[in-house]
């Protein structure tokens, strides 16, 4: 692994420099690389980034997993389009504030993770942002995100957020991660165009607000959901990726017709039994499950049924 990069000093025409995953601590040599457009110092031992303030042509900067505490030099990098920074480990120096990012008015991708920041008011001027990742911080107030109307991806996992009302104006938002927070109310998401929602380990009790979302991924484990009347509406979503086990209970009132449709498309293999006879037995088991639609035993019955199949393929 490289620790000394002083020998690069004569390469003043560099436009891209990738030195991630080394043991570099001193980056003073880069101050001469004024033509740099992309710089990757991810996963090193860098404390001081003052040398980068002269790199005014820089568009992409990666500083993830470093023991940086002061990112103020980036305020000079007004052409930055992409910026990733995160702290290295719990015992290291850590970033406390991000006020210097307010000058990055052209930035579209911003990731500031695993730091000590709690105030994100500086981001409200970054109206060109499309991806914002502020995971693993101490944020509770996200009012400032309401101004980021072009956001498509927002990651806020592992913070202290309870109120997400600021998100109701994010009409371009497609992917949202609020895992491991204290969110109770999902109603601000009601009119968004979300395709992916991750809200594991919060304090959510009611999911009525998401009934009309056309979700492809939904993760809401470890909450306090009580209202299960959404089965009919949630069945209309195109949940074709990961669905958490608790959502198996949200089988719609239309389940019988759905299963009848599926039955025609199920392919059973690795059985010596006659296919027609197996199909009949399968249908009988489904019907017994359907008769228990209002019972809390529905999930175990479905699981038991599918565990007994050696192979099953369901297609459109």
From TrEMBL:
Pfam families: LRR_4 (PF12799), LRR_8 (PF13855). It comes from the Eukaryota. This is Uncharacterized protein. InterPro entries: Leu-rich_rpt, Leu-rich_rpt_4, Leu-rich_rpt_typical-subtyp, LRR_dom_sf, SDS22/Internalin_LRR. Keywords: Leucine-rich repeat, Repeat. SUPFAM superfamilies: L domain-like. It comes from Hexamita inflata.
């Amino acid at each position: 692994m490289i620790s000394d990069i002083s020998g690069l000093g004569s390469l003043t025409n560099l436009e891209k420099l990738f030195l991630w995953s080394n043991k570099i601590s001193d980056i003073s040599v880069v101050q001469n690389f004024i033509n740099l457009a992309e710089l990757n110092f991810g996963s090193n031992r860098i404390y001081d980034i003052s040398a980068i303030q002269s790199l005014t042509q820089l568009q992409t900067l990666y500083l993830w997993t470093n023991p940086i505490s002061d990112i103020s030099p980036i305020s000079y990098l007004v052409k930055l389009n992409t910026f990733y920074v995160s702290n290295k480990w719990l015992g290291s120096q850590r970033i406390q504030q991000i006020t210097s990012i307010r000058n990055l008015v052209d930035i579209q991708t911003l990731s500031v993770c695993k730091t000590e920041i709690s105030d994100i008011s500086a981001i409200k001027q970054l109206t060109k942002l499309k991806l914002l990742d502020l995971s693993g911080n101490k944020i509770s107030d996200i009012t400032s995100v309401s101004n980021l109307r072009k956001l498509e991806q927002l990651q806020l996992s592992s913070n202290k957020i309870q109120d997400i009302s600021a998100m109701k104006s994010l009409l371009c938002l497609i992917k949202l991660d609020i895992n491991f927070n204290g969110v109770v109310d999902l109603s601000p998401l009601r009119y968004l165009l979300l395709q992916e929602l991750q809200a594991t380990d919060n304090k959510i009790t009611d999911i009525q607000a998401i009934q009309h979302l056309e979700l492809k991924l939904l993760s809401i484990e470890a909450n306090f959901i009580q209202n299960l009347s959404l089965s009919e509406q949630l069945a209309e979503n195109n949940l074709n990726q990961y669905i958490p086990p608790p959502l198996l209970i949200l089988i719609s009132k239309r389940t019988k017709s759905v299963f009848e449709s599926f039955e025609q498309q199920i392919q059973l293999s690795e059985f010596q039994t006659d296919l027609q006879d197996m199909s009949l037995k399968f249908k009988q088991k489904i019907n017994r499950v359907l008769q228990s639609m209002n019972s809390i035993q529905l999930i175990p019955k479905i699981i038991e049924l599918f565990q007994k199949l050696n192979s099953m393929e369901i297609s459109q």
